[in-house]
User: What shape does this take?
Amino acid sequence: MTEAPRFLRPVTTPSADVGMAVTFEAPLPLDCGRELAPFTVAYMTYGTLNADKSNAVLICHALTGDQFVASDHPLTGKPGWWITMVGPGKPIDTDRFFVICSNVIGGCMGSTGPAEVDPSDGNPWGLNFPVVTIPDMVRAQKRLVEHLGIDKLLAVVGGSMGGMQALQWAASYPDCVRAVVPIACAARHSAQNIAFHEVGRQAIMADPDWQGGEYLLHNTKPAKGLAVARMAAHITYVSEMALQRKFGRALQNRDAKSFQFTPDFQIESYLHHQGASFVDRFDANSYLYITRAMDYFDLAEEHGGQLSDVFRLNSARFCIVAFTSDWLFPPVENKRIAHALNAVAAQVSFVEIKSDKGHDAFLLDEPEMFATVRGFLNHAAQDLS
Amino acid sequence: MTEAPRFLRPVTTPSADVGMAVTFEAPLPLDCGRELAPFTVAYMTYGTLNADKSNAVLICHALTGDQFVASDHPLTGKPGWWITMVGPGKPIDTDRFFVICSNVIGGCMGSTGPAEVDPSDGNPWGLNFPVVTIPDMVRAQKRLVEHLGIDKLLAVVGGSMGGMQALQWAASYPDCVRAVVPIACAARHSAQNIAFHEVGRQAIMADPDWQGGEYLLHNTKPAKGLAVARMAAHITYVSEMALQRKFGRALQNRDAKSFQFTPDFQIESYLHHQGASFVDRFDANSYLYITRAMDYFDLAEEHGGQLSDVFRLNSARFCIVAFTSDWLFPPVENKRIAHALNAVAAQVSFVEIKSDKGHDAFLLDEPEMFATVRGFLNHAAQDLS
Assistant: This one.
């Protein structure tokens, strides 16, 4: 195990530092039957680990997130994706907690993924990279947490795919986590969610610049396909109501319809912007792999579909947070998790927050979410003293 | 006006007859300021026009529909798209009513559209075709109805974009229609609907085989882009619940996940099938034009946003039908139409049908819809005697 943190310059982001990174030589066994060796986990930490190493909070990122939860993104220069939640005095208070956030394996911000170099031939992995799963991602995170000398996390927190990872932590390592906060997520991906992901993947793979996944070798980039994928996905992140309120049928920089196929409506320009800016920061193959991991996620699968069996004997306390207008992971799916936990008498709070901002509410200014997470973590931390 | 019905062989469907067609020499003025001359309307009729020409029912098709409402499709060989609704003894009873259904202008089944020949240069129109609107489509239908010698339609019936046309008939020609049946539609396209359409258009235009719209000249076809567009749209036609019930997370012809990017889940195979079969029957540019027409639709726009003003002095009776699980045109949008009609004391029935089949319910076996339409048309026909 090569454990010295180092700065990485991944294939896709040659000019950007990705924070800290650790490369493990011991293989990471994967659900597909293959293994990764060596593999790298890129991560950021915030705050200070206390003497008994009991104040560590792992934050898991969503599909297109990364380790820069509370610091500027090295490529875009934008603030961290959850600075409202994480920082000094914030609900996840870095004055009190040692916060860890790592890029998932399969990702494109320094952790081993399809855009990184396959040591067997020195070329980018591309589609030779193994299909990874949420449990695989969590297995890699566990290695990082061990590397940091932490036996038991105070909490694992995440929204969307981050919430899936939080649940997986409870399932895979029930003795290594005191508190679990899955936000705006589900214990399995629905048919509709798989469908939207497949549309995105098909859009990417339809782009000739994708080159059968070998675009890095050909010095191309399936930018159009990836932008279409992002545009389609983005619609699912916001509520119909929010789109109507924010954009409605308002025209973009014009007084009348153009009778052309250039964007007339603000909603069109907005989507184009979402697509274009995404392409600049994200790897298309990573998008394929991570969406696939989400599609494959079904926590109860190994327990004959009995979700409650996943949590049997689990001593962690759970705080499940859902948003009323989230139609990607609707409250009923979040509630299903709470019910399963109740069925095995686990400690669980369920909070359904009234919001019209859709799935992305978990990334936005939601005071009730902040208060909930703050209170829950305070409570979990009190147990320690 | 060349009024003799003739059989057409459009550019895109060289081997298929498109039913009847009439070509008008007198120009069709368009909302964009341009005009079409000559222009052709391809159509089908069913049943017999009575002596006083009072039993004509115009059926308007949806985005990807056509004139083959109650007879086999010449390209696919499949039964008409609304044979449950239209035919002898059916709710729209061709033993009693003379049913007309025409392909919209901008379409690709024989009516003048982007795949037809531009008379100015002998090439397919492509993007030189003017951007048409729902009112333009209805203006062309009006010419057909006049050509058939009909002053006043007994009814105009349509679902989805067909419902938009039905509403537009009431707005444009209030004295020419006795009864209006807009099903599963809205008086305007929402921001979310525009967004999904723009994703589809971008997918088509991102396909290099689209060739800037001139694929027919280059003997190519943006099949991949059009398939992605159809896949994305198809998700919006069905409810989350129906997808979950029909497919859930079931795998397609395999016992375990493949850990590949080929379709593992039934929902993926189903979407692929939807995409592939659509490409065989539909023109990509028509898809651009017709989605644009829907996006542009906002019935109240010319009345300062006052929808009720559209229907002032309208003597037609209306029957508005909505489906509870339709999230493309949710009941609240259908209700808005009913409220606007109520506000001007128009004769209106509003029926919200409990269904979990989503938007496509209007094309499926929905006994309450059948009974509603049957009863409403019977009633409208009684007024005549």
Remarks:
- Chain A touches chain B through 56 residues (CB under 8 Å).
- The first strand of chain A starts at residue 20 and ends at 24.
